[in-house]
Design brief:
A two-stranded antiparallel ribbon has the order 1-2. It is mostly helical and 141 residues long. It is 72% helix and 4% strand.
Amino acid sequence: MASETPPPPEGGTDTSTTADTSTTTDSITAESTAATAHPTTAQFAAVQESEEFGELRRAYRSFAFPLTVAFIAWYLLYVLLSNYAGGFMGTKLFGNVNVALVLGLAQFATTFLIAWYYARHAARKLDPRAEAIKSRMEADA
């Protein structure tokens, strides 16, 4: 069976199995950079002052701020109950599981629930608005 690869150069190593991709990568990077528009600072400032961007910011804040305040209040309630209501927190619910353990695990569940809820909200309400602004900026650049 004959070998299809040429022998290595004298005094060197066989490099025929590794392709030179630097030229290909450089040309792809140059093409993608040329195809991607870069808005100017003035365009960014104009978009930031636009009503559409203000609506996007309000949609984000109206979701994030109340949920953040609610979670911090829930966390502080847990801490305060742990410090000042030891009898209540030590109440056994079943076996060795007490109120403190259940509320502590609920903190983790709440964290993941909020993360999931935010991802859903962002995908439905925020991302389409942000994508529209981004597309318009890239088209104008």
